[in-house]
Amino acid sequence: MPQLDNVTFLSQIFWCFITFSLLYFIVLKNILPNIAKVLKIRKKLFDYYNSLFNNINTINNNYIVFKSSDISNLFFIINKNINDYNEIYKNINNNSYISNNIRNYSLLNITRKLSKVITNGK
Q1: Looking at the domain assignment, is residue 1 inside a domain?
Q2: Higher pLDDT, 25 or 64
Q3: Does residue 46 form part of some domain?
């Protein structure tokens, strides 16, 4: 077997050591710094987008709270206006001439007056 031949054994070990040492230094000086640079950029980009997302989330939550309080205020104002208009309507209804006159007469009084009018008319 030629791999185990004593004459070429030392030469193969030498060239294997030289080849792998050269490959190690190429990877160490060229490839690993590029990979590290890419990983740093990815981490910075991830942190930037994460902070941006958190800021947008905070703004969105504040907007939702603002809008919900705005809607609550709107409902309060509408309810207050409805109550005010209801009171105005009750006051108008209570103070009107027709409602006062109708309230003064009971059904019995109305039928008596109608019967008098009818009997006087005959």
Answers
A1: no
A2: 25
A3: yes
